[in-house]
């Protein structure tokens, strides 16, 4: 198939896949961006499909005793057909079926090329990455990444394309990166750190000009996440900053990756340097707003993370502004009865209570209590939490009768659900005891938050 072939000349299934890239009037250009790379992959897949269609004509169509057609093509010819089908399914977003086709392709490669073989090792690695990137299933991803590495070890130093030192090193780096990423998702941080450390050492032995930027970014990002999960926040921050520098060079997808990296860097910096975390999270919020719009869920979630960073840094005024910004989007996007909106209202009420904005906190908690009763029921723990917070606000206002009413309701629910020895039960009892101890005070000085 020639490079200039138009989408209208393609197989209908491929044409639908290419439509998402708006190629109806655009031919393949050697610009190197991701859209043209995906287009080139689809065109190559169509060429393989056409070639196998010609091969299939040389084999008769046979049927079983029950009348089902039997594919008489040899296994080697089916590999390219599976690859073409996989490319089309991924482009159309049919990820479950795409992974199923990759499983078939891996089996065919094992049958045709043997076990071990360089092509089988690559097939297992492709399958491992697909299970994680398309299905987000870390268990099978880790299993197939291990199988790919085991197959590579048994191939031999002079067998196939993996005999090239650079190709072999890149394969080991990619396989260990896939393994470490999957292990981290499984919660096995120590094993993930070991696998990713191996990948990092191998990648360091490769000349910088020969390192694929996408692989280096994936490895560095995964190392940052694993170090953060292991509590190594200083090292994690260094990896996050290195990943940010790599992502800045990507002019196609770099902005989306940068938004995530700045957000995770801010969360990591918040463990040690709240003020520095604020700067990173402000970058993340600006990027999310630029990519998806200021009223998007991603921008609201980023504003919420920024608000929490302001709270840790002691800047309550900016925290309130960021919380209100996120709340406005949540109410618009999900409605006042959504669990995320309710939780955000709770956070805002606690902030208002801490800032001694008691009237505003009381008005907000009135609405929250009504919503929680409607959503969860009068005897739910979430409703008890609302009663407890209402009691804390009323107690801070000096309205002891109102505070006692709310706290007794919360205590009754906590005792029924949690029992008398639970932390929430004892905390509420402590608040009621404080009312008794301060009953002669005009304005009791007590806050539960």
Strand pairing plus helix content: what structural class? Answer: mainly alpha
Strand content: under 5%
Q: What's the helix count?
A: 19
End-to-end distance, in Å? 68 Å
Oligomer: single chain
Tally of strands: 2
What do these coordinates show?
The chain has 449 residues and is an all-alpha fold. Helices cover 73% and strands 1% of the residues. The chain has 19 helices and 2 strands. The chain has a two-stranded antiparallel sheet. A hairpin with a 5-residue loop joins strand 1 (62-63) and strand 2. Helix 8 packs antiparallel against helix 9 (213-229), helix 10 packs antiparallel against helix 11 (254-269) and helix 15 (339-354) runs antiparallel to helix 16 (358-376). The protein is elongated.
Observed structural traits:
single chain; two-stranded antiparallel sheet; 449 residues; mainly alpha; disordered N terminus; disordered C terminus
């Amino acid at each position: 198939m020639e490079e200039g072939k138009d989408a209208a000349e393609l197989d209908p299934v491929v044409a639908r896949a290419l439509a998402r890239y708006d190629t109806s009037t655009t031919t393949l250009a050697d610009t190197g961006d991701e859209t043209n790379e995906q287009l080139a992959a689809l065109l190559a897949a169509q060429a393989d499909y056409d070639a196998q269609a010609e091969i299939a004509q040389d084999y008769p169509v046979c049927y079983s005793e029950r009348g089902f057609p039997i594919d008489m093509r040899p296994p080697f010819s089916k590999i390219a057909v599976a690859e073409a089908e996989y490319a089309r399914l991924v482009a159309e977003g049919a990820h479950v079926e795409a992974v199923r086709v990759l499983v078939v392709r891996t089996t065919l490669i094992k049958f045709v090329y043997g076990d071990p073989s360089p092509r089988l090792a690559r097939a297992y690695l492709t399958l491992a990455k697909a299970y994680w990137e398309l299905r987000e299933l870390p268990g099978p991803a880790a299993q197939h990444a291990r199988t790919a590495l085991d197959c590579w070890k048994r191939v031999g130093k002079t067998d196939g394309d993996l005999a090239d030192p650079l190709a072999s090193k890149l394969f080991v780096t990619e396989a260990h990166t896939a393994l470490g990423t999957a292990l981290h998702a499984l919660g096995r941080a120590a094993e993930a750190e070991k696998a990713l450390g191996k990948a990092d050492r191998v990648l360091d032995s490769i000349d910088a000009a020969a390192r694929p930027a996408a692989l280096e970014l994936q490895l560095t990002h995964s190392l940052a996440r694993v170090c953060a999960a292991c509590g190594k926040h200083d090292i994690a921050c260094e990896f996050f900053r290195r990943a940010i520098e790599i992502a800045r060079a990507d002019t196609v997808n770099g902005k989306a990756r940068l938004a995530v990296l700045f957000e995770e860097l801010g969360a990591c910096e918040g463990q040690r340097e709240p003020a520095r975390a604020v700067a990173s999270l402000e970058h993340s919020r600006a990027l999310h707003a630029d990519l998806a719009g200021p009223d998007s869920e991603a921008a609201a979630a980023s504003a919420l993370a920024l608000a929490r960073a302001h709270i840790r840094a002691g800047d309550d005024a900016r925290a309130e502004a960021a919380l209100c910004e996120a709340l406005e989007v949540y109410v618009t996007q999900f409605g006042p009865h959504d669990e995320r909106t309710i939780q955000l209202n709770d956070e805002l009420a606690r902030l208002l209570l801490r800032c001694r904005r008691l009237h505003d906190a009381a008005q907000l908690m009135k609405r929250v209590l009504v919503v929680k009763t409607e959503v969860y029921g009068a005897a739910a723990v979430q409703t008890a939490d609302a009663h407890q917070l209402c009691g804390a606000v009323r107690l801070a206002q000096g309205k002891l009768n109102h505070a006692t009413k709310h706290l007794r309701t919360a205590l009754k629910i906590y005792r029924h659900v949690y029992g008398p020895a639970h932390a929430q039960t004892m905390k509420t009892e402590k608040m009621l005891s404080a009312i008794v101890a301060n009953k002669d005070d005009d304005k009791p000085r007590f806050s539960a938050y």
